[in-house]
Amino acid sequence: MAIEVEDKFDVPEDYTIPELTGVPGCAEVLGPRSYRLTAVYFDTPDLRLAAHGITLRRRRGGDDAGWHLKLPKAKGARHEIAHPPTRSAKVVPRELAELVLAHTRREELVPVAELETRREVTTLRDADGRKLVEVADDQVKGTTFGTVFGEEPRVERWREVEAELLDGDVDQLKKVGKALRKAGAVPAASGSKLARLLGPAGRAAELTRPPDGTAGRVVTDYLRSQVDAIIAQDPQVRRATEDSVHQMRVAARRLRSALKAFSSVLGETGDLQDELRWIAGVLGEARDLEVIHERFAERLDSVDPSLVVGEIRTRLGDDLRERQRQALVRAHLAMSSERYFALLDRLDTLAAKPPLTPVAGKKAGKTLGRVADEQWRRVEKRYDRARAMEDAEERALAMHDVRKAAKRARYTAEALTPLLGDEAAALAKRAKDVQEVLGTYQDGVVAQEILMEEADRAREAGEDTFTYGVLVATERADAARSQAEFPGVWAEAARAG
Fold first, then answer.
1. Rounded CA gap, 180 and 20, in Å?
2. Cα dihedral 356, 362, 368, 373 sign
3. What span, in angstroms and rounded, lies between the C-alpha atoms of 356 and 353?
4. pLDDT (tens digit per residue) in 15-29
5. Is residue 205 over pLDDT 80?
6. What does the pLDDT average to over 178-204?
């Protein structure tokens, strides 16, 4: 997967590319080199991909003929996934179709438009011959297909310029952009050629937003940010990119936490919370195995080599990796199920028309400040209940509930930090400190359980299990240490409160 960093400009028909040799680090300017490109764009009949800033095309001509999927721009860059040309020009490759399932939900992908481009490329290189920045001067003819829009095919023509960062640095791209603007270019009004051609038909519907300054506005903006995060991570999870499972799981948890915490602002969302818990749990299996695999690798590296015997590195390495892979396969299957697509439909509805109560119309500061306070008091009550228990097992379960309450208080405070500032940030820190020390204990308990399971398998296979005992003892000691640290962490949190 490539990451594009580029700037797009609208230019008049008589525009002339300026002299670019003055860009720092540029030793020579090559070109222009001419290409003729033809790209057919695919989408659902109701243009769901275009509405979310996604383009899926099959291109002929140039150095990168084939299929291209471009995901929305984030932090100045767009993710592009390329696929070699296929025999069929009308059937989207399965690998790419799966990456947009969060939007299509199995709706058919059909040709919606064609772009024919006469491109002239100018390349800036340094003294070592590295390509720094590429400037593409495009004369474009765009045609929409009437079968989608219910009208006769529509044709538009325009000219635009793109400056794309290759092996240079961002400052060099900025210098090129400055030179292009000085010559008369202006930042493009559309993020892509397709968006320009489709116009309003390819844009997302305007969302109804509560008035500024109200509790409803703050809550709905936060809910939408988490829905967007889930959707954005979907293709990354399908590609198994680093940290994507964790990020999607966290977004689902934050959204579920918000629905609970802000229940006075929102209507009944119990069923939706259950479905968010389901998908977070599906993702959690793969994520937990990923974390535990890394944890055991570090543990083994810290143990005296003379104490590492048997096949433990294989079992805690290859075996756990295989279990993680199988868990990821199960996650992918779940994310291709009708249950998952139904969840996404409900998230769309939540983002577009959240079930607001009359409380949503109240001023945000006082109303949501009370919510944050209530979440922290909930942590205090759960801890009071836990430490009053005499039975050790019951108390351990109750402390797990304290951890979950602290996590919700943290997520709530973090959601409100832009509104409430330092006060909410301080509350988030208190809750995070409590959550993390209890989490360290819980992680140790889970690690011990997995080690015992793996030790049983090793014993049945006739392997030496001595090192498993060493690791269990280490995990037990660390868990006990965290347990002993908690009263001090709690006292500090209580003082801060």
1. 9
2. negative
3. 8
4. 999 999 889 999 999
5. no
6. 90
Contact in structure between 119 and 62 (CB atoms under 8 Å): yes
Residue bearing tokens 């769901």: 48
Degrees, nearest 5: CA angle 226-230-233: 130
Q: How far is 291 from 286, CA to CA, in rounded Å?
A: 9
Let me know how many helices (H) and strands (E) the chain has, helices first: 16, 9
pLDDT single digits (tens) 79-125: 789 999 998 888 999 999 999 999 999 999 999 999 999 999 999 99
Instruction: Take residue 489 and report the two structure tokens written for it.
Output: 């962490």
Output the six-digit token pair for 449.
Answer: 């359980």
Share of the chain above pLDDT 90, in %: 82
pLDDT in tens, 462-486: 999 999 999 999 999 999 999 999 9
Report how far apart, in Å, the C-alpha atoms of 231 and of each of 56, 121, 236 are: 17, 35, 10
Q: Which amino acid is at 330?
A: R
- Pick from 359, 364, 353, 293: nearest CA to 324: 293
Overall average pLDDT of the 119-143 stretch: 96
Domain residue extents for the chain: 2-202, 215-496
- Distance CA(209)–CA(352), nearest Å, equals 9
Structure tokens at 69: 């999927």
Return d(Cα 182, Cα 19) in angstroms, integer: 11
Q: How far is CA 22 from CA 25, 27, 181, 362, 435, in A?
A: 9, 9, 15, 57, 54
Buried b (16+ CB within 10 A) or exposed e, 117-145: bebbbbbbbbeeeeebbbbbbbebebebb
For 126, residues 6+ apart whose C-beta sits below 8 A from its C-beta are 25, 26, 27, 132, 168
**pLDDT at 75 exceeding the cut of 80:** no
Topology classification of domain 2-202: Hypothetical Protein Pfu-838710-001 (2.40.320)
Facing residues of 70 across strands? 55, 80
Residue 23 — φ and ψ, nearest 5°?
-65, 125
What CATH class does 215-496 carry?
mainly alpha
Environment class of 222 (CB within 10 Å of its CB; exposed 0-12, middle 13-18, buried 19+): buried
DSSP 3-state assignment of 484? Answer: helix
Long-range contacts of 221-226 (CB under 8 A, 24+ apart): 222/258, 222/415, 223/255, 223/258, 223/259, 223/350, 223/351, 223/354, 224/351, 226/251, 226/252, 226/254, 226/255, 226/258
**Secondary element (H or E) of residue 257:** helix 244-261
Is the pLDDT at 2 greater than 60, yes or no? no
Q: Which two tokens stand for residue 254?
A: 């934050």
Alpha carbon 78 to its chain's center: 13
